[in-house]
Amino acid sequence: MTASRLTRRMVLGSLLSAGWLAHAAPSRPAVAGPAVWELPGLWEDDQGQRVTLSDWAGRPALLTMAYGSCRKICSTSLRLLQQAQQEADARGLELSVIVVSLDPRVDTPASWRQFRAERGLQRPNWHFLAGAPAQIRRVAGLLEMKYWVYDDHVLHDLRIAAVDASGHIVARVDWVDEPPRRLVDALAS
Known about the structure:
- The protein is α+β, with helices and mostly antiparallel strands.
- The chain has one domain (about 25-189): Glutaredoxin (3-Layer(aba) Sandwich), CATH 3.40.30.
- It has 5 helices and 9 strands; from the N terminus they run H-E-E-E-H-E-H-E-H-E-E-E-E-H.
């Protein structure tokens, strides 16, 4: 075996054992657990209003986690959310889009408003939330989304969940190549 082939196998083995390639597998709904709408705590939205996740009970939603200064995964997640929104619009499906901050130190209502304006995310059914670290960990746990702070960055998975009207996750997109249409399919059925 050549040295370059051995190196590739070692790197691949390391990535597999670290779980980095788990995202390449087809997505699956999250395991049964508490409903998203049942998670406790007050959040502050991009309009400065205090809200709870139960405020969205009774309506399907797309849910992800992001932070305003992210330049990679969050931009991709938002693009996929926009595609899913277009698909929902084409089907006449009304849904909410909820983005939970991974960096509430920086993602204030004013910075989220500016973020939305700069990216043309002004639809009234889109909501950007910031909360306490314990709340963020609970949402990340329910989404099975890993994240960690490294210097001024938050490194994290790509994860978008389709949440039905009762608050249960019925589908996920975990990989950039997965069609966001899957999320809308799950909510429309």
